[in-house]
Write the structure tokens for this entry.
Amino acid sequence: MSGIEEYLRRVARGLAGMDPRVREDVLRELRAHLHDSAAETDEVRAVSVAEPPEALARRYKEMYGYGKAYQALFVALSAVLAVFTLPLFLFLGEGTLAIGVSLAFLGILVAYLMWVAVAAGSTAGLRAGIAACATRFGALAALGAVAGAVVEGAGGWVLFTATSLLLILLGWLPGRAREKWGRREVSL
């Protein structure tokens, strides 16, 4: 494998998750640039003066973001995690365990939503937050239909609703802050 092809392989690995068409366009353009540079000097020099492949891939990913398939995966995973934020084990008679497990999953979900927002952008984070919120309400309705009242009293409903709506904000805000105040040097 040539030095250029090895360099491109490392860049391609860093571009995982991007829209495949954008990814191929980036690699095609980069390949042409490296071959042009190699024609002027040599292949070893062209690769040695190029930006490190991981850093270059990271900058392209910041510029173009994740593809729709990955964004859908982020949304689906947030919905799955949201189901486990409900105290499901209450129905097995394990009150303290149920609350502890649901709080642990809520913490995991919050961290995940914030990561999605920062890594994939505020739109992906917002979608994941909406999916988590909607899933919590849907799962609660399903539990209520099967097991009767799940949330006790007005205070319980306020807490449940506020927590669920907060997930939307937590999915959107970190990404928006990064977009607004983060590094702006994404030129290539």
Q: What stands out?
A: The chain has a mean pLDDT of 88.
